[in-house]
Amino acid sequence: MKSTRIGLVATAAALALTASACGSDDSGDGGSGGDGIKIGIKFDQPGLGLKQGNDYTGMDVDVATYVAGELGHDESDIEWVQAPSSQRETLISTGQVDLVVATYSITDERKESVSFAGPYFVAGQDLLVRSDDDSITGPDSLEGKKLCSVTGSTSAQNVSEEVPGVNLQEFGTYSECVAALVSGAIDALTTDDTILAGYAAQDQYEGKLKVVGAPFSEERYGIGLKKGDTELCQQVTDAITKMIDDGDWQTIVDDNLGPAGYEPPAGNPPTPDACS
Amino acid sequence: MVDILRNYDVIGAFWVTIQLSALSAVGALVLGTVVAVFRVSPVGVLRLLGSLYVNIVRNTPLTLLMVFSILGLTYILHLPFSESASRNAYWWAVVMLSVYHAAFVCEAVRSGVNTIPAGQAEAARSIGLTFGQSMREVLLPQAFRGAIAPLGSTLIALIKNTTVAAVILGTAESAGTLAEVTENEGASLPTFLLFALGFVILTLPLGIAITHYSRRLAVQR
């Protein structure tokens, strides 16, 4: 009997705690919703969106900071949210983020659930090889070579169509591919050239890796936002146009992807599409 | 949902899951039984080896074993099964699933051995059977019958753990195909439910059969 009573008290206390925690959470959200802005980025892509401790670096981070600045938000008002590829649509449609700047290619399928501003960059699928390897010049020269990509990624699917029967090893993340490439166990890694340049630009791989520079697809990176919000879309598009015209775009690209000797492919800087 | 079945080889992916499960189940059963015999043997060194194996393998994450088989064993120690990356990953996945679940099979079989009254082992030895003979003729047959329920749980866990092979095997297997579908179509509840249903179809009848046979085959004492 006594233990039942103690249990009841404990349950009541736990309920009270959860209830109060909910309450404070709600008010917190309401407060920051007014002046803050929540932006979804990648947390694990060097050169594009990378979280190290409390620092965020990369091209997407710089683009997002610039655009947020144009929308009237200080850098300190930005709340960075991790946006893994598979969750980007959900994060936007449920309102957990205001913008997504996360190597987000504009495609017709995605336009069914979100709206895009941009593109702010045109990337292409390319190959990363060891810098002393001149035998690979593009997808045509992959015969008999070992190639690496990430399980189920668009890049892996593209290259399987482009070069049927390619000897493809798939891993969970690109980091494993890069490690195997440096050690010589595989010959090439394929995905968007921006991601490749980001890895090649990391300190520990400096001078060891190079991007081949023969893109065989076109990925138009846009800024994802809530479907149908043309007002916000127009503001973001204006910000991108200003960023390109000011020369800030060039600075951002050079700072983040330049160290690997990477040159943006043809079509850059892009002209953003009209909002609809 | 129908589109997904039409555009992606979901059935083929589950067929690979079944292959991985069946091959690894055989591998784990054989290896696990050997380790279990080590653990109950009268030789101290073998008992030590057995418990070292179980404690090391059981406490290592399966993902780590999988990635190690490619980055470590294939690339650094040059132990590939095949020149083709996907075949190599397939066979290493089978090996690693076998090695990992052998530790659990070993403990299940050992628990089965422990259900047998000590008098039976003593009786077997006293009529002149060697350790090997008494294991084969008296102890293991009863141990397996007593261990059907825990062995069945290990088999169900093994079937679901084949999804971990996606980290090296790519889209050939069901979890890899799910990653591909999610990449192309966006994450959606029906897709997840479709793949979850696939696993339920594989494991639920198995669970019912195991419960049935664990009752029917249990040694009555």
TrEMBL record, chain A:
Domain Solute-binding protein family 3/N-terminal: start-end pairs: 36-260
Region (Disordered): 255-276
Keywords for this protein: Signal, Transport
UniProt-listed Gene3D superfamilies: Periplasmic binding protein-like II (3.40.190.10)
Pfam families the UniProt entry points to: SBP_bac_3
PROSITE patterns on file: PROKAR_LIPOPROTEIN (PS51257)
Family annotation (CDD domains): PBP2_GluB
Superkingdom per UniProt: Bacteria
Signal peptide coordinates: 1-21
A GO BP entry: amino acid transport
Bias (Pro residues) ranges: 266-276
Entry-linked SUPFAM superfamilies: Periplasmic binding protein-like II
Protein family (similarity comment): Belongs to the bacterial solute-binding protein 3 family.
Name of the protein: Glutamate ABC transporter substrate-binding protein
Organism from which the protein derives: Phycicoccus endophyticus
Taxonomic lineage from the root: Bacteria, Bacillati, Actinomycetota, Actinomycetes, Micrococcales
TrEMBL record, chain B:
Pfam families: BPD_transp_1 (PF00528)
GO cellular component, one term: ATP-binding cassette (ABC) transporter complex
Every ABC transmembrane type-1 domain range: 14-212
Keywords: Amino-acid transport, Cell membrane, Membrane, Transmembrane, Transmembrane helix, Transport
InterPro entries, alphabetized: AA_ABC_transptr_permease_3TM (IPR010065), ArtM/GltK/GlnP/TcyL/YhdX-like (IPR043429), MetI-like (IPR000515), MetI-like_sf (IPR035906)
Subcellular location: Cell membrane
Residues spanning the membrane: 12-38, 59-77, 89-109, 143-172, 192-213
Family, as annotated: Belongs to the binding-protein-dependent transport system permease family. HisMQ subfamily.
NCBIfam families membership: HEQRo_perm_3TM (TIGR01726)
Protein name: Amino acid ABC transporter permease
Organism: Phycicoccus endophyticus
